[in-house]
Write a structure and sequence with these properties.
Helix content is 35%, strand content 22%. The chain is globular, with a radius of gyration of 23 Å. The chain has a 5-stranded parallel beta sheet with strand order 3-2-4-5-6, sandwiched between helices. It has a 5-stranded mixed β-barrel with strand order 16-17-18-20-19. With 473 residues, the protein is an alpha/beta fold. The chain has helices at residues 8-24, 40-55, 79-91, 93-98, 114-123, 139-147, 198-202, 210-222, 251-259, 279-287, 304-310, 316-329, 348-361, 388-411; strands at residues 3-5, 31-36, 59-60, 69-74, 103-108, 129-131, 167-169, 180-184, 186-187, 206-207, 227-231, 266-270, 294-296, 334-341, 365-370, 417-428, 431-438, 443-447, 455-463, 468-472. The model has no long low-confidence stretch (mean pLDDT 94). Helix 9 (251-259) packs parallel to helix 10. The chain contains 14 helices and 20 strands.
Amino acid sequence: MPISLLPPDTLRAIAEVRARNDAAAAGERPAAFVLTFGCQQNEADSEKMRGMAAEMGYRMTERPEEAGLILVNTCAIREHAEKKALSIIGQYKHLRAARPSLIIGVCGCMVAQPHRVEEFKLRYPYVDFTLDAAALHRLPEMVLARMAGGRREFPLPAYGPSDVPPVVEGMPIHRETKWRAWLSIMYGCNNFCSYCIVPHVRGRERSRRLADIEAEARALIVEGCRDITLLGQNVNSWGRMPDGSFPEGDFAALIGRLAELEGDFRLRFMTSHPKDASDALIETMARHEKIARHFHLPLQSGSDAVLARMNRRYTAEHYLGIVDRLRAAMPDITLTTDIIVGFPGETEEDFEATLDVLRRVRFDMIYSFIYSPRKGTPAAEYADQIPADVAHARFDRLIALQNEISFEKNKQAEGKTLRVLCDGEKVQGGETLRSGRTDGGKLVYFSGDARPGDVVQVKIERAEPFVLRGKIG
C-alpha cells in the first residue's frame, strides 16, 4: 500500500506562503477560517487543513468576514449537507467583493464528484479552487498559486472508486482541544453499500502503518490527551491489504496494543461494519480498561430484504448475535447505531422489522436519517423510491420509540457514580454547570469544580432522554 511523506513541492509552497504572509503582516497575521460539514473523518481532515494553514503563517479565526483564507470542508453523504454547504458558500460572494485578495477553497467529499466540480467552476466565480479529500496535502500549492496570481484550479479526483490512493504522512494537525483527539488510522471504503457515496469520493481502503499510528497516539498521550477516537470509514477493517492479508495484524491487535500504552486515557473507535466486528475485537475490548465501553455498530435496517438491497452483507440475526456477544462480555456497554428510514422498496413490514430490532437491542442512542438518493450510487436508480410523506411518518415513529428507550436506558444511571471527562461549561437557569462525556459517550451536566480536560467522578442524580445530570462526588 503506497505511503509517502509531504512532497517537496508542498513543503516549498508552505515556506513561500509563510514568507508572503510574514511580509504582509502589519502587526497581526492574516486569518484562516475553516468550516466543516459531515462526519468525524471530515473533522479530522479539517484539523489537518488548519494545521497546514498555521504552518503557512495564518492564525485561526471563527469569523469568516475577517479571514484572508476561507476553506469549506464539505460532505456528500446526504443532499441536505450539500445544499447547506452550497448556500453558505454562496454567502461568501460579498466577502470576496469587499476584499478581492480573499482566497476561497472548497474541499472534501462533495468536490470528489465531477458534476460538483463543474458547478463550482462555472457558477461560483469567487471560489478559487477545489480539492478532494485524497489530495488535501496539495492545499499549500493551491493557496500559493492563487497568491501568485495563477488561474483558478478545479482538478478532478486523481483516484476513482477502484483505485487505492497513497497515504500521505507528515501533515501538520491543529487540534482545538488537548484532551480529546481524532486519530485517523485508515481511509476509504471497500464495502460499496448501494446507497453510499463514500467509496466514490474517498477511494478504496488504505491503512496507515502501525508505527505511524502508535507514534501519534504516544505523542497525544504525552501532551495530555485523555480521550482518543480511532477513525476510519470502516475502522475495524484496519490492516487489510488489497489481497485480503493482514501483514501488521488486524484491528483487534492494533487497539489492544494501543491500550497497553502508559497513561490515563480512553480509546474509542468509529465507524464499524458488522461484518468485521470480530470475536477477537470483543474479547480485546473486555480485557482492556482503557478501551471505552462503547460500540457504535450501524444497523441501517432490521429487515433482511432491505439489508440485501443495501448490500450490507449481514442479516438481522447476525447483527443480533454480535449484540449478544458484546453484552455477554461487557454488560455495561453503551450501544449506538445508524438507521436509514425510507430506503427504496421498504415496506411497512420491513419498517416494523427495524422497530423490532430497536425493541430487542434497546440502543442507548441512534443516529437516524431519511434515505437521501446520491447520484452515482445504485440505490438512486431504484424505481421503487418511497414517497416523502411515508418516509417522514416512519421516521417520526422511529424517533418516538427510541426516545422512550433512551430515557429508560438513562434512568438506569441514576444513583450511579460515573467517570466523566469534562469538556467545558454551560449556563442554564442562571447556574453555571460543567459539561462532559462518560466513557460510554453520554452527555453529562454536573456541578462542582472541574476544568476542561479533567477526569472526575460524577454521581448521577437525574436522567433525561438525552442528558444525565449530577454532581461531583
